[in-house]
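In line with agreed milestones, the collection of sequences with tokenised folds has grown. One record among many is set out beneath this paragraph:
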Amino acid sequence: MPHIPDIADCIEQNLAQYFHDLNGETPCGVYDMVLFQVEKPLLQFVLTQCEGNQSKAAEMLGLNRNTLRKKLLQHHIID
């Protein structure tokens, strides 16, 4: 049975490409960059699954609704 890549595999592959593309330059802020890049599609996907209902999305994500709203604004998902 073939190995199906999980999210961690995808992130690892992208990080390997990111570091390769730096051509020896020292990266900065990698932790925050990765979290920011993963967070936006996660929020968008869950919000879509909840048909735009922020309270349901917050519950599904295990976040306070105000925290979710702050993150949605930060990522420009809502106005």
In short: Helices lie at 7-21, 30-49, 54-61, 65-74. The chain has a mean pLDDT of 94. The first helix runs from residue 7 to 21.
